[in-house]
Each structure stands twice: as C-alpha cells, then as structure tokens.
Specification:
alpha+beta; Phosphorylase Kinase, domain 1; Transferase(Phosphotransferase), domain 1; 3 domains; 6-stranded mixed beta sheet; 3-stranded antiparallel beta sheet; 11 strands; globular
Length: about 375
C-alpha cells in the first residue's frame, strides 16, 4: 500500500455522509483514482517478492479461502484468484490487504504481523508472521484447558485488546472464533484471520461468520457494526470455560432461535459468577447495551473477572501456557479435509479479471508456487508435501 493509497483510505474513512450510502462504490473509486496517478515512490513499500525456489515445510493452516504454508521459516498465505472470482469473494482480498496494511502502520502485539503481499498468475500471496504455537482451539483440546479461568482471562484480554485496537482503526473483524486465534512460540495469542474484516463508518448488512458466533443483529439483518465483535468475544469466553458455545445446537436455525432468546437462557453451570456477568455484559441483546459500548473499554478492564490483571503490562506478561518447542510444526495437525474441496477444480485455472487484480495488487509477478521439500520431513503434516 503506497502513501497515496493510505491517504485515500483516510479520506475514505472521513467522508461519513457519502459513505453511509456508497461505502463500497466510493472505496473502489478512490483506490482506482490513486492507482492511476503517478507513483511518488519507486516501489510500494508493502510489495514482497517471494523466492519460489524455497521449499514448503508444511501447512500452518487451511480453510475455505486459502492456506498458510511454512516456507523455510517464513509464513505465506496463498489465496487462489480464480476461486475467489468464481465464488464472488475477490473483493474480500482487497479488504484484507487494506486492513493488514493498516495494522502494519499501527501495530498491535496481539495481531499477527504483516509484511506485505503480491500476486502471481494464480495466487495472491500474503507474507505474515510465522506463529508456531498452534490454534487456540487445538491447544485447548490437546491440553484440556477448558474451564481454566487463568488461561481464559489471559487469552480473552489479548483478544479484547486486539479488538479495541482494530476498532480504533475503524476496522470490524466479524470473524472471531477460537480457530482464528493462534499462539506464538512463547504462547502469546494473536488474531490471524482478516478475510471478513472491513473498514466501516456506520453499519454493514452482509451476513458472514460462524453461526455459533452470530449476534442478534446479524441474524435479524438489521445492520451491524463494531458491537458484533464484543458479542463474539463473549461467546468466545463462554466456550473457553464451558467447552461449548452458549447457543450450540444441531442446526443453524436452532442456533438462531436460541440467540434471539438471549444469553440469559444459556446454561451457565460450568461458568463462575464473575465470568457470567462479563459474558452477559458483552452479549447484551441490544448492541448499544454491550459493556464496551455502554460504559467504555475501561469498564471492561475494571471488571471483576480481570481482577489482578496488569493490562498495561499485558504485552510483557508471561503467558499461562507455553507451547512445546520440539519442532516447527509439532503444534499443528492440518488435515486434508481442512482444504476447500473447491480449490481442486478452479484454483489451477487462470483468473479472468486480470485488470482488476493489477489495479488492486500491483504488477503480476512471475512464478506461482513454492518448491516441494526435496527431503522427507517427519515434522510435516501428512499431506504429501515432503515426499
């Protein structure tokens, strides 16, 4: 992202009157306008150039929209362009680039570090921080940390601090869940998934995320904003303590019915009183009644659940859990089923909107994929990457 583009985003965020009606159209116009102007810099500072001769050591993550590869100590997220075009999600990559660029200029210790992006004929690549401690959900399942208030207190504090930081940048996350929180090698929690995040001024109406974490306003399609992230944080705390989401059911429709019935109807038997009070504060039915919205973020810091927690020293605190460090991929267990089955049929194809990709991601680079490891590696997941 160039300085020109950053200024365009700032102007974009400040034009509230126009954006209430034209947020999507306006940001595209400003981006196109800035890209058309002569560049002041010889090269955009956030453009990275992968060395495709480096070998893939394994997968750190895989899901519906891409995969994160460990490439000789570097982490690269690869998003297939053709898949995003055909599924109608190519603009989500543009938003992800803008949001990650904002966090690069204004970093937070509990948000994954971003180093830059680029695109080739088939993929958009994001170079990100290599976090080797494992997904929070996997860690909890493996170590049986469910119900531990000491662990939940630390991990939730990191999450809430990251959300407050994103909101200060006018970014709504929208996709918080345990699988989107990854630990560093020393156990520090960081948010890693910004595929559904968005700059907003007022409300947005797109339904996205995980049903177990849907807020009432998302379900009712009345428009949602930053308070939806506080709701998700409350659901996350409940899950860390009870091993299940508060509205968990067999079908999405049953989940939605429970959500609309209110958090008070959830089974709080595995949850302490202070934690219950905080969850109810974060998951108030009306967005404006949620604790950080109603009383400010300081009210969250002062809450009894966080008694004794040094918020100012949170970044220097020794985490309550330190992942084993025997091997780079020992804390990950990515399975073939985690990969989107749709990738196989469309990701190898050539995207049709080449002008759009060039406009938003710069010149197309040569090369496409990192080399497969030449030596069998017992540390890699069983995906055939090291055979």
């Amino acid at each position: 992202m160039s300085l020109k583009l950053a200024r365009a985003v700032q102007r974009f965020l400040g034009r509230e009157e126009d954006l209430r009606e034209l947020i999507g159209v306006e940001v595209k116009r400003l981006l196109a306008e800035e890209e058309a102007e002569p560049a002041e810099d010889a090269e955009e500072p956030f453009v990275v150039r992968p060395d495709f001769s480096k070998e893939v050591r394994g997968l750190l993550g895989a899901g519906g929209f891409g995969r994160v590869q460990l490439v000789e100590g570097e982490a690269w997220k690869a998003a297939p362009k053709a898949f995003h075009e055909k599924s109608g999600f190519k603009e989500s990559l543009m938003w992800e680039k803008l949001v990650l660029g904002a966090t690069l200029r204004c970093p937070c210790p509990f948000i994954m570090k971003y180093h830059g992006c680029c695109h080739t004929a088939k993929y958009v690549y994001f170079k990100v921080e290599a976090l080797l401690g494992g997904e929070l959900y996997t860690v909890y399942k493996k170590e049986n940390l469910w119900g531990s208030e000491a662990h939940a207190r630390y991990f939730l504090a990191c999450t809430l601090t990251a959300l407050e930081h994103l909101h200060s940048l006018r970014v709504m996350l929208r996709s918080l869940k345990l699988e989107d929180c990854v630990l560093s090698a020393t156990g520090v929690l960081k948010l890693v998934d910004f595929g559904l995040s968005k700059f907003i001024v007022d409300k947005t109406f797109t339904t996205c995320g995980t049903p177990d974490y849907f807020s009432p306003e998302v379900i009712s399609a009345t428009g949602h904003s930053f308070p939806v992230d506080w709701w998700c944080a409350g659901v996350m705390l409940f899950e860390l303590l009870a091993e299940t989401a508060p509205f968990s059911s067999e079908t999405p429709m049953q989940i939605y019915s429970k959500v609309l019935g209110g958090i008070q109807r959830a089974d709080f038997s595995p949850v302490g009183e202070e934690a219950k009070d905080l969850i109810c504060g974060l998951c108030a039915q009306q967005p404006e009644e949620r604790l950080p919205e109603k009383e400010g973020f300081d009210a969250v810091r002062r809450h009894g659940f966080f008694k004794g927690l040094d918020w100012q020293g949170l970044g220097d605190m020794t985490p309550p859990y330190r992942p084993p460090s025997a091997a780079p991929l020992s804390n990950f267990n990515v399975q073939e089923d985690d990969l989107n089955p749709g990738f196989g049929s469309v990701e190898i194809g050539a995207p049709s909107c080449s002008q759009w990709w060039a406009q938003h991601f710069g010149p197309q680079l040569d090369g496409d994929e990192f080399a497969e490891a030449s030596v069998s590696c017992s540390l890699c997941p069983p995906l055939g990457l090291c055979q």
